């Protein structure tokens, strides 16, 4: 049994423990003397520490050893895999939730920035229309509003042709 447990190097290797026949564990329970039980538990503990099994799980397993519950002592081990998988899934969900929250925050920030930029542009266009209507030169309007002269010329043509109505 120690040789099999020694082959456990990582959580995925715990499947090896399924290869131990149940009747072997029953016989082991009857045949292992009390004075060797602690040594056996210590060996199992070291192998499991080496396999990076969580401390709480190791304690549960060794406690079952002392109670001579050999047949179900590794049932906890197999639940570790499930616990880690559940923790991984939970971590992913939490990460996605945080990511979405951060994404929404960033999106709102970018949206507001874009909205303000668009608002300033619309405001500049409105001012340019009014100044064109009042007869101000395209160059002066461009200097005042920050809009490029070509765009203002297009606005001026739109007002002249009656496409846009002056504000």
List descriptors.
167 residues, 2 domains, 7 helices, rod-shaped, mainly alpha
Q: How helix-rich are the residues, as a percent range?
A: over 70%
Helix and strand composition category: mainly alpha
| C-alpha Rg (nearest Å) | 38 Å
Percent of residues in β-strands: under 5%
Q: Tally of extended strands?
A: 0
**Spatial gap, N to C terminus:** 91 Å
Order of helices and strands: HHHHHHH
Largest sheet: none
Low-confidence stretches: 162-167
Number of domains: 2
Helical segment count: 7
General shape: rod-shaped
- Mean pLDDT, all residues: 77
Describe the structure.
- This protein has helices at 2-6, 22-31, 34-50, 55-66, 75-133, 138-145, 149-160.
- With 167 residues, it is mostly helical.
- Residues 162-167 have low confidence and may be disordered.
């Amino acid at each position: 049994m120690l040789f099999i447990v020694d082959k456990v190097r990582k959580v995925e290797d715990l499947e090896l423990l399924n290869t131990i026949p149940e009747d072997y564990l029953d016989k082991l329970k009857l045949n292992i003397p009390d004075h060797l039980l602690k040594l056996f538990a210590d060996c199992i503990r070291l192998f499991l520490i080496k396999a990076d099994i969580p401390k709480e799980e190791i304690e549960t397993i060794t406690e079952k050893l002392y109670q001579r519950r050999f047949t179900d002592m590794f049932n906890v081990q197999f639940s570790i895999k499930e616990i880690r998988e559940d923790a991984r899934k939970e971590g992913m969900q939490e990460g996605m939730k945080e990511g979405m929250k951060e994404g929404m925050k960033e999106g709102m920030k970018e949206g507001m920035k874009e909205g303000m930029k668009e608002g300033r542009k619309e405001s500049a266009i409105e001012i340019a229309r009014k100044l064109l209507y009042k007869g101000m030169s395209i160059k002066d309007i461009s200097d005042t509003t920050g809009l490029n002269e070509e765009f203002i010329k297009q606005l001026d043509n739109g007002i002249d042709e009656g496409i846009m109505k002056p504000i």
